[in-house]
Amino acid sequence: MNSDDDQIHFECTKCGACCREDSLLVTITGHDIARISMGLGLSSNEIIRAIDFYLVSSNETPKGFRDIPAVNTEKGPAYIALKKLENKDCIFLKNDLCMIHTIRPVVCMSFPFVFRDDIELNWGLSAMQNICPGLGKGPKVKISDLRELALVVLEDLNSYRSFIEEWNKVEKKPTANRLIDAILSNPRFSV
């Protein structure tokens, strides 16, 4: 994690590299699902076609998912992410541009930065930073802007984590459809 003295330059080049990287999944939270559903006018049945549930096959958390909780589904614990097309592009990538840029998931808003709130708020660069040609270009990133973004990201993750913990404890017949309905009807995720 970096300190206030670090100087880093970043400007999104809108190249789409992070949206098509084969090994990078765009994990989503309850707020992301609600924001995309509302922004595109999608029902729960329609939004479920834009996402995938990645099943957890062991008790070990996959690399890159340590901050995202697994959710119980009818097929077992899973992580939720935006669907990838056969060519490995994000479902919302078209001509190298994000079709949902103004309502994109928080993980997209923050890439290539990652945030942690251990004892104090910290930031760092994603393990996938090497795919981003915008690093080292553009204006110097303001630490105050990173802190502001960190607060949004971490609050969103904490809210989602709390919801999933409740869901996993209470829901006796978990299904993907019931989960999406629960997210879209939960006031904590209202847009």
What would you call the structural class?
alpha+beta
Mean pLDDT: 88
Order of helices and strands: EHHHEEEEEHEEEHH
Q: What summary fits the major beta sheet? A: 3 strands, antiparallel
> How many strands appear in the DSSP assignment?
9
Shape: globular
Q: Strands across the major sheet, in which order?
A: 2-4-3
Q: Tell me roughly what share of residues is in helical segments.
A: 25-40%
Estimate the strand proportion.
Answer: 15-25%
Give the count of structural domains. 1
Radius of gyration from CA coordinates: 17 Å
Distance between the termini: 31 Å
- The unreliable regions are 1-5
Number of helices: 6
What secondary-structure arrangement, pairings included, does this model have?
Blueprint lengths: L8 E2 L6 H4 L9 H11 L3 H4 L3 E5 L15 E3 L2 E7 L10 E2 L2 E2 L7 H5 L2 E5 L3 E5 L9 E6 L2 H28 L5 H10 L6
Antiparallel strand pairs: 1-9, 2-4, 3-4, 5-6, 7-8
Please provide a written account of the structure:
The protein has six helices and nine strands, in the order βαααβββββαβββαα. The chain is an alpha+beta fold and 191 residues long. The chain has one domain. The strands form four sheets. A three-stranded antiparallel β-sheet has the order 2-4-3. A two-stranded antiparallel ribbon has the order 1-9.
